[in-house]
């Protein structure tokens, strides 16, 4: 295994060009860029699938696709967004920024870094190819159609043949994530510049360090769950088969033991990004740095003891219900600390509203909305009413789209000058922001109402009284989807170096080592570690 | 210093983390027996004991009556009848009761079935003792056969006071293919052993 230092020796003398540069890259910046483009492409692919869903739901009754295909769309949309867009997106930011932020020359295990990225496109090629399987005579349904949560026995006994492709691709995604997480931990532990103590690290590094520990703890559990599925399907075991003495409910416990920490894997790095951006544009130190670190760690620890709140309606003893309800509500305390700290950072700051700040403020407000509906869902009797309705869909899209995805837009606008050397196009950026902000609320806010009124999720049709709301939700969906083309244009312009030249420190309130290096960041940085006072 | 080089430290951290990841993979499988233990204690999945109770009831509580309801369901691939002779019985805790179940096989070939019990509320599961049950073993139904399958049970006198009704549900599964596959494995293993 070559380390950062060894890899650098290789690189000094010949820098491969063209396709080879990207295929064989061990440079954290190149790999970060690959991750980010991959994530953005998967975001567009997943979005396209969501457009199929919203097209079908434009009007009541069956219009464009049959229910079987609709179910495949909801499943693959969820998988592409969770494992393809959000998780690799954050790994991309980690690759680019963590070495720059802690004064390291590269990630600690560059060769493994290359591998963990290049597994991903193949994993998704396998998963997405399953959508087209039936065109080649593989039977119906073509792609997995059991929802991204792949509950047994729907996925084990009733799943399509392509479920095995799904299992293989989940294994690959898991291996990729675990390797990425290991790399982050080794880098943060061993490659910090002299003087960069743990409690001096930028919050983005802290949140990623904790996320990496979560990944190593739960991605193997997901791998275990899909392995059990595989042996149940083909090797005669009965982990989840009642007929053979197993229990389908066990699947839900194993899955959500992974699934709930997974939720925080997708949001903790977002907390770190917002905690970097808000102080910059409020021109104040982050309020309560230490409490932010402890809050993040508390959220991560609590995430292991709340999983059964996804399964209240499955049934459990009263004591269990109460335990999971109170533990879930307890998470709102450290989360509340964070929101308070962001607001307190802005309080009496000299605020300006450049693009990253706009996204970050939208994140704080809209993520808090998503958190509040989460608190409602934590209340067991209320959950019995809301379970598997559009209220739940509204909840997790507020925390994942206006939460995780908005934070990634904020981060992209914030660090694009550092990556590309040019400022992101202001006009396109403003259009992207306002257009996304309005459309995303038109898309997801009415889902609360139809959910409360009882519209179930994952159906290709709905009762007539939901027609008006669904029409507008679909319009919001198309509008939000098209708004992302502005962002594509922003990214392409930056990639082509078209735009105002960026200074090394393009935001005058910005602090941190990443702004000490020129823009665009040179291929190799911090080969002699900086000294942190 | 040279001994504890960066490369060594990186490898050491890598090794620890890899071991941790492998341990968590093992943990996923450890959850299976752990879940069974939790279910036994709490009745989480409502499963009753899969072996016959050898001791009879300690006493009969004459002044308490509990309603026991029976539900039958057919799992995937079963298209014959499956029902209980009665929908509900009123029993005193400690009273031994027999209920007959019926299953039929309209197919032209023999099938092997396995019935899986589940009790609601789950906490009552461990107070329901069976001295005989068709669910303890796989039941073979010949082509066109209709079979009477008795189940003898009693409720534990210690059944918590607040439980006045409990529902015993059986789902019948066709396990013919599963049994055939297992037999193949056994035969292959025997061949190897020879």
Short description, anyone?
The complex is a heterodimer of chains A (533) and B (194). Chain A is mainly alpha-helical. Chain A is 67% helix and 0% strand.
What this model shows, in words?
The complex is a heterodimer of chains A (533) and B (194). Chain A is an all-alpha fold and 533 residues long. Chain A has one domain: Cytochrome C Oxidase, Chain A (Up-down Bundle). Chain A contains 16 helices and no strands. In chain A, helix 4 (67-102) packs parallel to helix 6, helix 11 (318-346) packs antiparallel against helix 12 (355-378) and helix 15 packs antiparallel against helix 16 (467-495). Chain A is globular, with a radius of gyration of 23 Å. Residues 1-11 of chain A have low confidence and may be disordered. Chain B has two domains: 1-42; 66-180, Ctag/Cox11 (Pfam 04442). Chain B is 28% helix and 32% strand. A five-stranded mixed β-sheet of chain B has the order 3-1-9-5-7, with helices on one face. The model of chain B is unreliable at 190-194 (pLDDT under 50). Chain A binds chain B through residues 1, 3-6, 108-109, 157-158, 178, 181-182, 185-186, 189-191, 216-221, 223-225, 227-228, 236, 239, 242-245, 247, 249-250, 253-254, 257, 315-317, 320, and chain B through 6-7, 9-11, 13-14, 17-18, 20-29, 31-32, 35, 39, 42-45, 47, 50, 75-76, 114, 116, 120, 122-123, 171, 173-175, 178, 181-182, 185.
Low-confidence stretches of chain A: 1-11
Percent in strands of chain B: 25-35%
CATH topology of chain A: Cytochrome C Oxidase, Chain A
Largest sheet of chain A: none
**Tally of strands of chain A:** 0
Strand order of the largest sheet of chain B: 3-1-9-5-7
* Radius of gyration from the alpha-carbon trace of chain B, in angstroms: 24 Å
Oligomer: heterodimer
- CATH 2nd-level architecture of the largest domain in chain B: Sandwich
Basic shape of chain A: globular
What Rg of chain A, in angstroms, do the CA atoms define? Answer: 23 Å
Distance between the termini of chain B: 60 Å
Tally of domains of chain B: 2
CATH structural fold name of the largest domain in chain B: Ctag/Cox11 (Pfam 04442)
